[in-house]
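Sharing a chain and its predicted structure for anyone who wants a worked example. Both blocks are below, sequence first, tokens second.
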Amino acid sequence: MKWMRIVLDGLAMSLFFNFSVGMFSFVWPQAYSTMFPKEIKEAAAPYVVKKDVRKMYIVLLAIYLFVFIYFGISSRNAGINGFWNLFWTGYAEMLFVNFGDLLILDCLLRAVAKKKRGLIKGAEDCKAWQFREWMKAALPEHLVIWPLTFCPLAGLIVAGIGCLT
């Protein structure tokens, strides 16, 4: 495996993914509230427009597809061969996206959203905006759930794409 390539691709796609998701979270903040902690979801629910939620999921799907295809083709073009090498390359690169999500979206974007109190209507004064409360949801998600479920899935997708090219 080519670790320098894995690190550079992981960092590049982490920045692309997280800044794209962050940008769209300012376009449709109410739609993104459906992915926030339960208290914020419930407080913002009366203001959520289903059409915007659908658009948000379509944009997220497009971003994920781009990331997976990029990882698969880039890994294969870097000369990484074999299912397991491609799998672990995709897994490691998705870990970069995961930790970027934790740092950029869950720490930085949360702080910005908290300061802009009117960003998500109905959830301005929720206790879940506090750093400690937010991290109670974010840390298990990024330290357990992503590495055990989503990163292996990404590795399988990348290995499949890499084996097909």
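Comments welcome. The chain is about 80% helix and 0% strand.
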